[in-house]
Specification:
By secondary structure, the protein is of the alpha/beta class. The chain contains 8 helices and 11 strands. Helices cover 25% and strands 22% of the residues. Strands 9-8-7-4-3-2-1-10-11 form a 9-stranded mixed β-sheet, with helices on both faces. It has a two-stranded antiparallel sheet with strand order 5-6. Strand 1, helix 1 and strand 2 form a beta-alpha-beta unit.
Length: 260
C-alpha cells in the first residue's frame, strides 16, 4: 500500500467530514450526457452537499481544469483525474491534486492510445468546454478504447507524478480489474478498490483486505451522489491515503446502498 502521506502522520489536527465523489465524467467522455457541463456539475455537487469531487473522463483530463475553474469560490474542491483503460481492459481511476500533473499523465496516456479517430456516430461526441460550459473544440482522438499500458504501468506512472490510483467498479462484470484478471496483482500499489452502491453491501471476495471507496461514476447529472464521506483535516491525497488506512483518526465512511 501507498507512499503518498505515509512518511508523516499529523496528529491533533482538526478533522472535518467531507462528502466525496471521486469518479465522474464530463462531456469529454463520449458516453456522457450533454448535461455533464462544468457549471451544472458544480451546482449539482453543491446541492448534494459534496465537498470533494474528481473529474475522471475516459483516457483524458481535458475538461478537468474547466470544472476546477467553475468551482472557484464555491468551497468545492475539485481534483483532476482520468479513468484509464489498461491493455487488460481494466478501468483505473487516476487522481491528482495538481492539474499540470494530470495533463502530464494525459500526454502519456494519449501516446499509448491507438492512432485512431473517434466515430461520434458510434461512440458519441467528445467535447472540450470552458468553465461556463461553452463549446471550445472537439477531441478527435478515440478515447473509448484500451491503451497499451498495463495495470502496473498505470499505477507506477501515476505514483511517479504524485497521484494515486483506484481500481474502478471492481464489482462489475466488465471493464474492471477483477473481471479482467480475476485478482489484484501482488504488490500493486493501489490506494483502494471502488465498488458500486450495491457492491458496498456485498463486495467481491477478492476485495477483502482492501480499502473500499464508493463513487458515482456519473455520466449524467441525476447519477451524481454522495457515495462516501471522508473524515480528514483537508482535501488532499495524503489525507485520503491516511483515511483509507484508518490512520491519525482519519477514516472513510461508505454511504448506505440506495439500490436495494
Amino acid at each position: 500500500m501507498g507512499r503518498a502521506g505515509d512518511a508523516e502522520e499529523p496528529t491533533g489536527a482538526r478533522l472535518r467530514r467531507l462528502g466525496a465523489d471521486l469518479h465522474l465524467h464530463t462531456v469529454a467522455s463520449p458516453c456522457a450526457e450533454i448535461d455533464m457541463l462544468p457549471p451544472l456539475i458544480v451546482e449539482r455537487a453543491l446541492d448534494l452537499g459534496l465537498g470533494l469531487l474528481a473529474v475522471t473522463d475516459h483516457n483524458t483530463a481535458c475538461n478537468a481544469g474547466a470544472v476546477q475553474r467553475a468551482a472557484q469560490g464555491t468551497g468545492l474542491c475539485v481534483w483532476a483525474g482520468l479513468e484509464v483503460q489498461t491493455r487488460e481492459e481494466a478501468h483505473v481511476v487516476c487522481l491528482f491534486e495538481d492539474l499540470e500533473a494530470a495533463l502530464d499523465w494525459q500526454a502519456r496516456v494519449y501516446a499509448a492510445l491507438p492512432p485512431l479517430a473517434n466515430r461520434p456516430e458510434v461512440f458519441g461526441a467528445q467535447w472540450m468546454v470552458d468553465h461556463r460550459g461553452d463549446y471550445v473544440r472537439t477531441n478527435e482522438r478515440l478515447l473509448l478504447t484500451s491503451t497499451a499500458l498495463a495495470v502496473e504501468e498505470v499505477v507506477e506512472g501515476v505514483a511517479a507524478l504524485g497521484g494515486v490510483t483506484i481500481a474502478a467498479h471492481v464489482d462489475r462484470p466488465s471493464y474492471s480489474l477483477l473481471a479482467s484478471l480475476g485478482f489484484v496483482p501482488e504488490g500493486l500499489d493501489l490506494a483502494a478498490l471502488e465498488v458500486s452502491a450495491r457492491g458496498v453491501r456485498c463486495p467481491p471476495p477478492q476485495a477483502r483486505g482492501w480499502p473500499l471507496v464508493s463513487s458515482s461514476d456519473a455520466h449524467r447529472l441525476e447519477e451524481m451522489r454522495v457515495g462516501m464521506f471522508l473524515e480528514v483535516a483537508e482535501p488532499t491525497l495524503a489525507e485520503l491515503r491516511m483515511a483509507l488506512g484508518g490512520r491519525g483518526g482519519r477514516r472513510v465512511l461508505l454511504s448506505p446502498s440506495r439500490t436495494d
